[in-house]
Every structure is written in structure tokens, then in C-alpha cells.
């Protein structure tokens, strides 16, 4: 009876508040791959390094668009804008980045500082600026050799989007229901994530609307790629059609999807549907369970092993934190050495590294919204991590294409990277104390990449034997 009553209430709510929702779900085949994967030359490659920022929290260039700004409230706008990103292009480029992923700039419902609550799909949010600003940003970025990735959401709209409230979009939303069982694919795909109106992406009208809209953003603004939000919450057949129809017109356009799942088989499926890359949540967990006080190298080894299930992981994104996960610096309780070890691994692995804004200072921040604080520009000048990231960006250019683990125990890992004739070896002590490390390794000489010091003396009888300090990380050029 209670259930029935709930249904009546929900039905009423659905009718009164959400004129667009549908109660009848049409059965559709969600797994069929109908469109071929277009695998042309992508604009992106292993040479890219992405800087990821939240537009609202990065840099405020104009107070004129600070319409909903209230810096005292963590969960509303703080004033950052598109022109603020443009102002800092040289800063981002100077660290060695080749691309910037910006959070969605689409017009949002009240309070949608993060950009994930679309209200009007054909507008830039008034707090972020105008479509002209975005065109300007892309144009300036391109002049400096930087690509722009736009965050794009098709799964849901904001709580009061125009599509939901205008009374003209019958059957454009799924029946309102909360996702209770994350192992139930239908529930995950059709439920209202975080209570947000879930678009009925099986409806051909909705598909056409979203695909047309995505193409409109590309054509209008000349952005180079999309970071696709909440991919696992949208039917697979949608992504197959979406990526095909975009690539039909823009074959080199880059699409990287967020599937918040550490299972590589699950992630790989979306490659097969047509996305170029996935955010590698498998490696993320491997990294964070390893490079920390009490971490275990076996966690990372397992993730590396799992990663081999990807047919081609080279356009995946590798990361150590983001706006949904606590900042790495906080995870390791402000131990700079562990942060450096994680960053070094991220830069050594043959996927595209993504650095979250503020990591370079480094900023503290626990889970959302603590990890979304305003960029602390006053800390840039004295940062010791900025030179480290610069070093890694150029190290990557010279040495990183192939990767292999050459030795380990549970508290250290040694991995080799190479590109053409250049070879380097990274040794990371994961232990929170001094550690004697010894393993078989053939080389003529070893040079410390950072200090240029000759460390060949540690090569004896076909072995490297050395003592690393607490959570110390060393990069060696191998000849
Ligand atoms: Ca502003
Ligand atoms: Ca708005
Ligand atoms: Ca959905």
C-alpha cells in the first residue's frame, strides 16, 4: 500500500513539477554497436599533457559578470570566468601543458558554479562570460599551441532546466527514481543521479537535440575535444551514435569519457563504442593505494596488469585527483615526497597526464567541496612543485613512450621508460623510512636527471644497489 501511495505521489510530482517526464519506458537494445568506430588521426597523442581547471574557481578577470558570486559560500559561484582562463594561458603553457580541460560553461541553474546543471544548452552561463569569450579563449589558446577541452554533459540537466519546465518536451526525461543499486545497469542509466532530471537518451528526438547541440559547440567555438561527464549513466547505444556523428564531421576531435569504475573491462567497452579515451580510474586507485604512508606496491602492479586489457590506452587520461576526488596532497597528509612519487609515475606512464589546478602549489583539499577551493595565486611564486611539474613535462617529452616495471618489492618500485634511443629509470621508495634497494639491472652509466649528478657508482656487478631516503623518488638517465 505504501508503495502504491509512493507511486501515486511520485506520479503526481512528475506531472505537476516535471511536465517532461515519462512513466512508460520503451524497451530498447542498449548494447548493440550500430555505428563503426572512426579511428582517424586524433588531435591528441601521448605528447599531450592536460591541465584541468574549474572555471569558477580559477581566475576572476571581470567583476562585471559576478552575478551570483558569494565567496563565503562554498557551493555557489566565486567569480572565476572564461576570460580569467585566457589571462592565465601563459602561466599554464610555461609549465609545459599542451591542453586545458575546463569545467562546463553552459548556462546553469541557480548555484551551478561547477557547470554540471545545464539550464539552456545553447548559452554560456552569465557568470562565466559569453560565447564570444569562449571563442576568444580558444583562439588565443590555439595561437599558443594549447588545445581546449570542453566538459560536456548529456546525462542530466539542472533541477529546473528549460527543457523540463517549458511543457513542450514530453518524453524527454526518464521517470523520476533514485539510483539505489549501482550494479543494476538499467537503474544506473535511467535513474536520477543526485536527484537530477535524467534525460531520456533513448528518445531519438533527445539524441538528435544533444548531438546537434554538441556539434554546435564545436562549430561555434572551435574547441578540440570533449570531456564527457557521467558516461556510465547513459546507454551505450547513445555513445556509439554520439561519437560516430561527431567524428563523421570532425574526425580528429578528441573525446574522453568519465566512467567512474575501476574495472578495465567496463572501461574498454566504451572505447569500442567510439570514445577515444577514458579517465583511467583503474590506475587512479592503484596509484593512491601505493604512493602513501602504508601503501603497497602490489596495488599499483595489479592496476598496471589490468591496464593491459585496454586494446589501446594511449588516449586515456591518467590522474591522481580531480574535483570529485580529494586532492592527492591531502590524501598523503601533506607529504610532498608522496605527491612527487605519484606525479612522477603519472608522467611516466604512456597515457595522457591530467593535472588538477592547484596541484602545482600544492593546494590542500579533502572531498568535494573542499577540493574545489579558489586557486591560491599568492602561492605560485614560492612553489617548489611548479619546477617539479615543469621538469616532468620536459622529462616526458624526451623519455616517455614505452613503460615497464623492472623490479619491486612491496615498498619500492623501479620502472623503466624509453622513447627512441633515450632511456630512463625511476626508483620510488614507498616506505616512510630509509630503505636499502638492490636489484639486477644492466647499464653503462646512471645520471640523476634532476641534478645531473653521475650516479654510476651504484652500478656494481650487474646490479643497482642504493639507499633511498623516506619516500624518495629518483629519476635516472640510463646509458
Ligand atoms: Ca567574474
Ligand atoms: Ca545561469
Ligand atoms: Ca541517465
UniProtKB/TrEMBL annotation:
Pfam families recorded? Alpha-amylase
Q: Which residues form a coiled coil?
A: none
Cite the GO molecular-function annotations of the record.
alpha-amylase activity; calcium ion binding
Q: Which residues form the Glycosyl hydrolase family 13 catalytic domain?
A: 52-396
- EC number(s) of the enzyme? 3.2.1.1
* Protein's GO biological process: carbohydrate metabolic process
- This protein's UniProt keywords: Calcium, Carbohydrate metabolism, Glycosidase, Hydrolase, Metal-binding, Signal
Q: Does the keyword Transmembrane apply?
A: no
InterPro entries, per this entry?
A: A-amylase-like, Alpha_amylase, GH, GH13_cat_dom
Cofactor(s) needed: Ca(2+)
* Reactions that this protein is recorded to catalyse: Endohydrolysis of (1->4)-alpha-D-glucosidic linkages in polysaccharides containing three or more (1->4)-alpha-linked D-glucose units
Which SUPFAM superfamilies does UniProt cross-reference here? (Trans)glycosidases
Q: What protein family does this chain belong to? A: Belongs to the glycosyl hydrolase 13 family.
Q: Please give the name of this protein.
A: Alpha-amylase
Native source organism of the sequence: Helicovermis profundi
Amino acid at each position: 500500500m505504501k508503495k502504491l501511495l509512493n507511486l501515486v505521489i511520485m506520479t503526481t510530482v512528475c506531472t505537476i513539477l516535471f511536465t517532461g517526464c515519462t512513466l512508460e519506458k520503451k524497451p530498447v537494445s542498449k548494447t548493440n554497436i550500430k555505428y563503426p568506430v572512426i579511428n582517424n588521426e586524433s588531435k591528441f597523442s601521448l605528447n599531450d599533457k592536460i591541465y584541468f581547471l574549474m572555471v569558477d574557481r580559477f581566475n576572476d578577470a571581470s567583476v562585471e559578470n559576478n552575478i551570483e558570486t558569494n565567496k563565503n559560500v562554498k557551493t555557489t559561484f566565486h567569480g572565476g570566468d572564461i576570460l580569467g582562463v585566457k589571462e592565465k594561458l601563459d602561466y599554464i603553457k610555461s609549465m609545459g601543458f599542451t591542453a586545458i580541460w575546463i569545467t562546463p560553461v553552459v548556462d546553469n541553474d541557480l548555484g551551478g558554479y561547477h557547470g554540471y546543471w545545464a539550464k539552456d544548452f545553447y548559452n554560456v552561463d552569465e557568470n562565466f562570460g559569453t560565447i564570444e569569450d569562449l571563442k576568444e579563449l580558444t583562439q588565443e589558446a590555439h595561437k599558443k599551441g594549447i588545445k581546449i577541452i570542453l566538459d560536456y554533459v548529456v546525462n542530466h540537466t539542472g533541477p529546473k532546466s528549460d527543457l523540463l519546465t517549458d511543457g513542450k518536451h514530453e518524453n524527454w526525461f526518464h521517470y523520476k527514481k533514485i539510483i539505489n543499486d549501482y550494479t543494476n545497469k538499467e537503474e544506473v542509466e535511467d535513474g536520477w543521479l543526485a536527484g537530477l532530471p535524467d534525460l531520456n537518451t533513448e528518445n531519438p528526438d533527445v539524441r538528435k537535440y544533444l548531438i546537434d547541440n554538441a556539434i554546435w559547440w564545436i562549430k561555434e567555438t572551435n574547441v578540440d575535444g570533449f570531456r564527457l561527464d557521467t558516461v556510465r549513466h547513459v546507454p551505450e547505444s547513445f555513445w556509439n551514435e554520439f561519437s560516430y556523428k561527431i567524428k563523421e564531421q570532425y574526425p580528429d576531435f578528441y573525446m574522453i569519457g568519465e566512467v567512474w569504475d575501476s574495472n578495465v573491462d567496463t572501461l574498454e567497452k566504451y572505447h569500442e563504442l567510439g570514445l577515444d579515451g577514458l579517465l583511467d580510474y583503474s590506475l587512479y586507485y592503484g596509484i593512491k593505494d601505493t604512493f602513501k604512508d602504508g601503501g603497497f606496491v602490489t596495488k599499483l602492479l595489479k592496476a598496471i596488469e589490468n591496464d593491459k586489457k585496454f586494446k589501446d590506452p594511449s588516449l586515456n587520461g591518467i590522474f591522481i585527483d580531480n574535483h570529485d576526488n580529494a586532492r592527492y596532497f591531502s590524501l598523503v597528509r601533506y607529504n610532498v615526497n608522496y605527491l612527487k612519487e605519484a606525479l612522477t609515475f603519472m608522467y611516466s606512464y604512456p597515457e595522457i597526464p591530467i593535472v588538477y589546478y592547484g596541484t602545482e602549489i600544492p593546494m590542500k583539499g579533502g572531498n568535494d567541496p573542499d577540493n574545489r577551493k579558489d586557486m591560491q595565486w599568492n602561492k605560485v611564486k614560492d612553489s617548489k612543485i611548479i619546477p617539479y611539474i615543469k621538469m616532468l613535462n620536459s622529462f616526458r617529452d624526451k623519455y616517455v613512450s614505452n613503460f615497464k616495471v623492472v623490479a619491486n618489492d612491496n615498498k619500492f618500485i623501479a620502472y623503466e621508460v624509453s622513447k627512441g634511443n633515450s632511456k630512463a629509470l625511476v626508483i620510488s621508495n614507498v616506505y616512510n623510512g630509509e630503505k636499502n634497494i638492490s636489484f639486477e639491472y644492466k647499464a653503462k652509466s646512471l645520471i640523476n636527471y634532476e641534478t645531473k649528478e653521475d650516479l654510476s657508482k651504484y652500478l656494481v656487478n650487474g646490479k643497482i644497489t642504493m639507499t633511498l631516503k623516506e619516500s624518495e623518488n629518483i629519476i635516472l638517465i640510463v646509458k
